[in-house]
Amino acid sequence: MPQSNSADNANYFEALFKNTKQNSVLLMDAEGTIVNVNDYFLKSFSYKRQEIIGLKSRCLYTAEDQAKKLPERELREVINTGQAMDNNYLVSKEGTLTWVSGEALLVESDSGRVNIIKIIQNIHEQKLSENANKRLHEFSENILKTIEDVVMVLDDQLKIIKTNRALTGLFRIKETGEPVDFIEAIKPYDVNNEIIQKIRNCKENPHALNKSIIEIENSNSEKKIYDINCSMLEADNNGHVLVVIHDITEQKKSRA
Predict the structure, then answer these.
(1) CATH homologous superfamily for 7-127?
(2) Is residue 37 packed enough to be buried (19+ CB in 10 Å), middle (13-18) or exposed (0-12)?
(3) Quick check: 190 and 171 in contact, CB under 8 A?
(4) Residue range 9-34: average pLDDT?
(5) pTM of whole model > 0.90?
């Protein structure tokens, strides 16, 4: 944003500073010294007004970001271009970390004095959700790699969109990174269409017990007995089916 001498802009920023109730607002000089803060900042970061005014804004950054000179880079950017945006952690007086989205704007008063106004939005819950989803994905991927059973997710067209390596040991299906047509891939092994029918029954009757025991000649030309379980992934509302194929050959032999 370019510098401006207009009274309208000055009034706008003054109103923004005083009236913003959902975002923290800092007013700084060109060196990054905090001149004023709004009440929401005091509430969010546990400072009293007299404690924070006169400090450099870098005190709000983590030690790691200070070492990277992130506060100084932001100041240079806003001085040179009129605006700077960043997402990073800020630290409260008590040491609590909050993930925020910040926008710093260069403003010039009628008297020619240059200040920087920084608007800080708390997006910590969004960050926690993203981290949780990432950890869950990594956990799921690691679990899939260690499971000996065949585990796969089929879309509404019965294409494989997610699976583990155990699948290639049972059926000769190459990992291409693209969805694989499960019906075509399984044809040589599911000669009576029992598995496909079981999956279709699952889609038609998602609350029924969709489980069966089937003999399959696997990719090593070995006849083995498998327990097939199908269930709908109702949480995603996309008609996806979870299929688990468990080798129970040894169990059957021990009971024979």
Answers:
(1) PAS domain (3.30.450.20)
(2) buried
(3) no
(4) 74
(5) no
